[in-house]
Amino acid sequence: MGRRREADPMSTTMDTESTYSGYSHYSGHSKKAHRQGSRDRHKSPRSKDGSRSEKSVTIQTPPAEPLLGNDTSRTEEGQDDNWGETTTAITGTSEHSISQEDIARISKDLEDSVGLDCKRYLGLTVAAVLGLLVFLTPIAFILLPQILWRDDLEPCGTVCEGLFISVAFKLLILLIGTWALFFRQPKADIPRVFVFRALLLVLIFLFVFSYWLFYGVRILDSKDTNYQGIVQYAVSLVDALLFIHYLAIVLLELRQLQPMFTVKVVRSTDGESRYYSLGHLSIQRAALVVLENYYRDFPVYNPALLTASKSRAAKHMAGLKVYNVDGPGNNASGQSRAMIAAAARRRDSSHNELYYEEADHERRVKKRRARLVVAVEEAFTHIKRLQAEEQQKAPGEMMDSREAAQAIFPSMARALQKYLRTTRQQQYHSMESILQHLSFCITNNMTPKAFLERYLSPGPTLQYDRDRWFSKQWTLVSEEAVTSGLQDGIVFVLKCLDFSLVANVKKIPFIKLSEEFIDPKSHKFVLRLQSETSV
Amino acid sequence: MSYVPGQPVTAVVQRIEIHKLRQGDNLILGFSIGGGIDQDPTQNPFSEDKTDKGIYVTRVTEGGPAEIAGLQIGDKIMQVNGWDMTMVTHDQARKRLTKRNEEVVRLLVTRQSLQKAVQQTMMS
């Protein structure tokens, strides 16, 4: 089979040679190119979507009409996309256009600022109003009779006044408990309402409403004179509120503490995986837990490390072209299957390349790392901390930690920069951040190794500047409703713009533990021999 | 050659008569034994069944009386001069083979190839 490199209309690599060869095969294959060109027009929007976060080049095959002047060209002039475009290359980012990523980001920002804040604040205000109402209700129960029909009331004896004290203290305990449990900064925006919280609010509302109803009908209307009874009624309300508070603790906090499920979280771009233990949570809360741990446990997402495998795969498939010998059938799936089979059977040495490339890269990284470590160690020897007495003696040369950092930085800057370039981390560390870290280490008496710990291996996302995170807006994708509880086998995906985290839930198995008693005196041993005697 | 408790042991055996050689003050037979009911049967390289605690021939010295008589390495010794060797300790086996007043020992030994030879002749 010859190795003619014709323009492959579906390729998304920067295959610049193919444009010229496409032109040269123009006249001979006009009809075929025309058909392929029209197919391309419908499929090109999709191919643009497919290459979201890589800067890729989409090349459209030249349509036959403009050069040959067919009749069909006039009917298709209505379509603006490709008219008159022959071999135009559409790049991911250019001076005057916005890339797909930016458009997606802008639309998401618009969504954020308007809709979701309202929802969050609405929930908070409802809860706050209800809480205030509930807190003031017992006080109102006690005070209203005094205000409205003071003269008819029976005098309040010792028992009654004792009840005042108990109401006061119970309200104080309730207040402290509510403050401890509920007055917290909301740390996340979740898509659906918290089922348990909503249930509790409804329960409290119904409860207080029914108490007010009873109070209104039986006490206010009839102007009951038994003040002690009224005060006891208020005390019973406070007791019941304390019990509801207990219920809230159990439902919201205690129930999910016992681990029941293990979640395996895998990052889609590079396969980093972690396991977490969770209790009985709803899917959205489980997603929150996963995300909180993601920022701490997963090494930061570095798009610079991902480009190698795709180019390798493209090189492997390049140069294969399907020729249809049996007739004009356009069997696309058959063609692609044939291509896959041919590529699999093909004997190429891309594995060899990968092996040597990786070995080479590792060697280079190790060399640069050795140079870096030596440079930093040497730089740190130039600085000495001044003790308090010595500080009076030599006032002239004293520097604070920032100046000391600036003084020793140039000697290690080059080695550090080369190392960061080799491990593709250079965009995560600006010179200012390095200087800050250096002065921080000097202040805290850290060794060169402690200073270097941040640069030698990629740390978790929290360690870096917020602008470099690539992952601030998350979407939860799940087949089950997000407020339903976790079950064995549930899979949900947390998507952000550049990558996604796939979470797989498994139940912790039921463990049967039994006991066995071994008497310490029963540990006895014999020698096992195999002796050989000659006779 | 496997031992089923309660059943008599059946095996195809070969009679080997060894005339002891006098070497100074000792009478030697020219082979080494291993095994016994007080030993670890799993370390026996010659036995087919690793729970077999019988006495096995582990070495045969070249040119010695045992080799001349036809004893081979890996043979299991079933009887010595009429005394059973399938259920003895290692020391008892040694004693039975090295009695000072006997100049000839008559052994009954068995090995795998004997069993196979008999089976082949029976089938053909």
Automatic annotation (TrEMBL), chain A:
Keywords: Cell membrane, Membrane, Transmembrane, Transmembrane helix
Annotated GO CC locations: plasma membrane
Primary location class: membrane
Span list, region Disordered: 1-96
UniProt-annotated location(s): Cell membrane
Keyword Metal-binding: no
Compositionally skewed regions (Polar residues) per UniProt: 10-19, 84-96
InterPro entries: VANGL
Chain segments annotated as transmembrane: 121-143, 163-182, 194-214, 234-254
Membrane topology: Multi-pass membrane protein
Compositional bias (Basic and acidic residues): 46-55
Domain of life: Eukaryota
Biased composition range(s): Basic residues: 28-45
PANTHER family assigned: VANG-LIKE PROTEIN (PTHR20886)
Similarity comment text for this entry: Belongs to the Vang family.
Protein name: Vang-like protein
TrEMBL record, chain B:
UniProtKB keywords: Acetylation, Cell membrane, Cytoplasm, Membrane, Nucleus, Phosphoprotein, Wnt signaling pathway
Membrane in keyword set: yes
Domain of life: Eukaryota
Primary site of residence: membrane
Protein's cellular compartments: Cell membrane; Cytoplasm; Nucleus
PROSITE patterns linked to this entry: PDZ
One GO-annotated biological process of the protein: regulation of signal transduction
Residue ranges constituting the PDZ domain according to the UniProt record: 15-112
InterPro entries recorded: PDZ, PDZ_sf, Synaptic_Scaffolding_LAP-MAGUK, Tax1-binding_p3
MF-aspect GO terms: protein kinase binding
Protein name according to UniProt: Tax1-binding protein 3
